[in-house]
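for ur thesis appendix - M24 family metallopeptidase. copy paste whatever u need, i formatted it the way the template wanted (i think)
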Amino acid sequence: MSEVHAVRRGLLRDRCAAAGSAAALVSRPANVRYLAGGAPPGAVLLLGPGEDVLLCPRAPAGEPGHGRPDEALRVDVLPVPDGDPVVAAAGFAAAAGADSLAVEEHDLTVARHRAMGKAAPRLRLADLGFTVEQQRIVKDEEEIGCLRIAAEITDQALGELLESILVGRTERHLALELERRLVDHGADGPAFATSVATGPNSGQGRHRPSDRRVEEGDFLSVRLGANYHGYRCEIGRTFVIGTAPAQWQIELYDLVFAAQRGGREALAPGAAYRDVDRAARHPLELAGYGEGLQPRTGHGVGLEIEEDPQLAPTAMGKLDACVPVTVEPGVHLPGRGGVRIDDTLVVRPEADGGPELLTMTTKELLAL
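the 3d part is after this line
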C-alpha cells in the first residue's frame, strides 16, 4: 500500500500547488489515514514543502485499529508530550520555506488556527476545504475488498444472532452480543453504535438500545456494521418475533422493501444523487408517509460510516463507478412500530453486472 498512499499524497500535492499553496496540513483522522496508511491518535500529516511528515503527539503504539503508517513516510514524535501537532506543523512548514499552508479549517478549532498563526506569523493559512474527502469518494479495489470483508463479517454476526432464542432478551443485551460477534469474526470493532429496536421502539427513527425485552409479535429492527482495517459497512434488517406477521406488518414491510429495491436499482454511474433518493422516497410518499421520512435515503461509506455522497432530495452531483453507498429507506410509526432496510452496495456499470450488493443477509420478512 506504500505506493498507493504516495500516489494519493501526490494527487493532493498537485491540487494544492494548482491552488497556490506550497504545503498542506491534513488533520482530520480519516483523511490522515487515507493519505498516510495509519492515523495514530492526535497525528497530523504535513505535505511539503520537501519531505512529507507524520507528526505525532506521542510515539505510535501500533494498535491495529489505527492502521499502520506508510513505511516510506517520515514519522516525527513531538518532544513535548502535550504539544499540539498542528502548531508544530506550521513551524515546520515555515522553517522549510513555505509561504502558504492549506489547512482543513472544518476540522480545526478557532483556538488552534490562531495558535498556528502565532507560531508562524509570516505563513499564509489557506483553506484546504473538503479536498481530501472528495478524493476519497471513489474507492480502489483494495478499499472495496476491505468493505466486502466488513460486510461478510456483519452478515455472519447477524445470521448467528437470528439462530438464537430472542424472546425475553433485552435490546441492550442483543446489541452487545452483536458487537461481540463482530469482533469474534475478525472486525476491529463495530462501525458505529449498534441499534436494536423492538416493538413500539422500532417506531423511532433513532433509537438507542434499552432494557425493553423482546416480546411475541414485535417488530425487531436491527442496524449494525463491522469496521475492518478502518473500512466500515452498514446493514439494517427488520423481522417479526415468534409468530406470523400481522397484516399491517406485512403491508408496511412490503412497501419499504419496494422503496429500497427502487433505490438499489437506480444506482448507476452517472445517476444523480437526488434521483437515487427519489427512487427510494417516492413510493413512501405516495403511500402517505412522506412527512416522517429521514432527510436522506443513503450515503457513502468508507473510512467513516457517513461519507459523501449524500443521497438526498437537494444533493448535487452524480455517482461514479466504484463508489460504495448505502440505500436505507424506512417508515417509523411512533408508538406502534417501524421498518427499515439498509444495504451497502458498490456502484458498478451495467456492463459489470450493475450495483454490487455487499450485505447479503436475506430481506425476506422472517418470523423468528
